[in-house]
Design brief:
Oligomer: single chain
Radius of gyration: 23 Å
Order of helices and strands: EEHEEEEHHHEEEH
Distance between the termini: 50 Å
Structural class: alpha+beta
Helix content: 25-40%
Length: 222
């Protein structure tokens, strides 16, 4: 752990320096154990300029309000060579998307809930607040799901394929169709599912607006 972060503190100043590879959730975990306030600074090992090889100087901090409840800082760097324009801000894009305040894990929680059971976005927002303390608007939950759904489902599909191969599950050849109707912002949507009737494995699933549903839709899904 000492290789990943260093903790500096004295009577007047407390700072926690974290490697850019440390998940942002670590900060919230640590907050639950540390009573005193402290500043979190994410940084990276950067001694020489990758452009000209000159020494790198620290160049202030860039604050970021994670999940809109916890401020952290990203260390900024600049090349000491005045003729070189290189500058760099510690990169946290493995944990949080550019231009977003919510961590990737936080944004995917709504999608996780959707795998368990259908919930309204308002109920999802309430669950967020109960279990994480994050007061997130239901419209933001909807936006996150809309933006992340395809990539998230691709990751789930890969994990499922690996699990199916490991368990040696074979298709039964008997398939069924299921349909679920729900509303988002007063607009009707349909979740159409083709599944194996014996193993209950989902073979194909599609969510569309009710406005787009017609006699050819089910054929397209199958």
């Amino acid at each position: 752990m000492d290789e990943l972060f260093k903790f500096f503190s004295d009577s007047d100043d407390k700072k926690l320096y974290l490697s850019e590879h440390i998940p942002l959730e670590f900060v919230f975990w640590l907050d639950s154990y540390v009573d005193d306030e402290y500043m979190v600074i994410y940084t990276t090992d950067l001694d020489k300029c990758p452009v000209c090889g000159s020494k790198i100087w620290k160049n202030g901090l860039e604050p970021l309000l994670i999940n809109k409840i916890r401020e952290i800082n990203r260390q900024k760097f600049v090349c000491s060579n005045s003729s070189c324009n290189f500058n760099y801000t510690t990169n946290l894009e493995k944990n949080i998307d550019k231009g977003c305040n919510y961590t990737i894990n936080t944004r995917e929680k709504g999608l996780d809930m959707g795998l368990i059971s259908y919930m309204s976005y308002e109920n999802m927002a309430e669950v967020y607040e109960i279990y994480t303390g994050i007061n997130i608007p239901r419209t933001t939950v909807y936006y996150h799901q809309k933006e992340l759904r395809e990539e998230y489902l691709d990751k789930i599909e890969i994990k499922l394929d690996e699990a199916i191969k490991k368990l040696g599950i074979e298709p039964s050849g008997v398939y069924g169709y299921d349909e679920q109707i729900f509303w988002i912002e007063r607009e009707i949507f349909l979740r159409m599912t083709i599944l194996d009737s014996e193993t209950k494995l989902i073979l194909n699933e599609w969510v569309i607006s009710g406005k787009d549903f017609n006699k050819n839709t089910i054929e397209a899904v199958s």
